[in-house]
Amino acid sequence: GVRHEPTSKIVLDLERLYDDASEELAYVARYARAIQQQRGDYNGRVLSIRADDLRALAIVYDASPSGLIERLTEHGVLVADPRAFFAS
Ligand code: C2E
Ligand code: C2E
Ligand code: C2E
Question: Contact 47/35 with Cβ under 8 angstroms?
């Protein structure tokens, strides 16, 4: 059957993501731009993404969803708490 990994909401820090020069995040950045376009959500500093889309992206990186989350965390492009993010 389908295995469900525990997921909390995935929120990307767009400034950090788009400034990140590493080749490794190129696909994540391209995906985020496409989602912004589909939503018409151009002015956000952060972007919440679907768990389904994280799963699809993980396949591109030959990783599990939690493995990809780990890499995103290492690059510092995830926002743990968007409300705290805006309060700071
Ligand atoms: P759709 O999937 O038919 O969703 C239509 C609208 O329902 C979305 O308009 C949004 O207002 C709402 N909606 C759907 N799922 C969610 C959700 O999980 N959370 C929230 N808050 N709202 C939801 P919107 O945002 O203008 O998106 C238009 C279309 O663009 C979507 O149609 C979908 O086809 C695509 N899209 C937008 N964002 C994503 C995304 O993150 N991933 C994927 N795969 N497609 C997306
Ligand atoms: P905000 O837009 O003022 O939203 C405040 C809170 O209202 C959100 O806290 C969430 O709990 C709820 N909320 C707003 N829109 C939706 C929605 O479409 N669906 C659901 N279920 N709840 C909604 P949250 O998620 O902690 O986000 C905090 C702030 O982070 C948001 O304040 C917004 O400024 C920003 N943010 C988060 N995700 C996105 C995103 O995908 N795009 C943009 N542009 N901003 C985002
Ligand atoms: P959220 O808006 O708080 O939605 C939380 C979860 O509720 C979503 O997790 C999804 O499982 C379910 N959900 C909410 N609205 C809809 C809907 O219209 N249709 C369906 N089929 N399910 C819905 P998910 O998919 O992991 O998305 C996480 C977050 O990503 C959402 O939190 C929202 O902030 C953002 N998001 C996802 N898809 C869209 C979209 O199409 N448009 C926009 N504007 N935001 C989206």
Answer: yes
- What pLDDT is stored for residue 6 in this prediction? 54
Structurally, the chain folds into a number of domains equal to 1
In ligand 1, the atom with minimum distance to the C-alpha of 49 is 41
From 8, 9, 35, 38, the mutation candidate for ligand 3 (largest count of ligand atoms within 8 A of CB) is 9
At 78, list the tokens: 């995830």
Is 4 within a domain?
Answer: no
Question: Quick check: is 75 in a domain?
Answer: yes
* Of 84 and 37, more confident: 37
* Mean pLDDT computed over 5-31: 89
